[in-house]
Amino acid sequence: DVRLVESGGGLAQAGGSLTLSCAVSGITFYDYAVGWFRQAPGKEREGIACIVNEDGTIHYADFVKGRFTISTNNAQSTAYLHLNNLKPKDTAVYYCAATWGKTVAENRGGGGWSSVYWDYWGQGTQVTVGS
Questions:
Q1: CA of 129: how far to CAs of 1, 14, 39, 61, 96, in Å?
Q2: Which tens digits make up the pLDDT trace of 10-60?
Q3: Are strands 32-39 and 125-130 parallel, antiparallel or unpaired?
Q4: What are the residues whose beta carbons fall under 8 Å from the beta carbon of 9, sequence distance 6 or more?
């Protein structure tokens, strides 16, 4: 079975930092892209960043503006999202997802990395940022 398990969420103060982890099992990590998404109450899910493990290509949403960084440890099949300079508006449930790397690399669907079909999802981890 494919499993994606997020961890590292919690409560942070404005200006603080958190690092989220996504442990992936059941797939060949190298062949996949891993994406991070978030959904705030009453809002649609939005893509934050993704990385194509095969070649290391990284995409970020415009709103990230250098505050968040995605990385992976291929040997441990784990992806990370480093959240810096957190703001109350970053409060959301954060999800990691995986899809075949070529799906992102070839922009299948034509709508950009966050709009491709992501095959597998984690259960999410809550991030709450106090003012």
A1: 33, 6, 14, 20, 19
A2: 999 999 999 999 999 999 999 999 999 999 999 999 999 999 999 999 999
A3: unpaired
A4: 18, 20, 94, 125, 126, 127
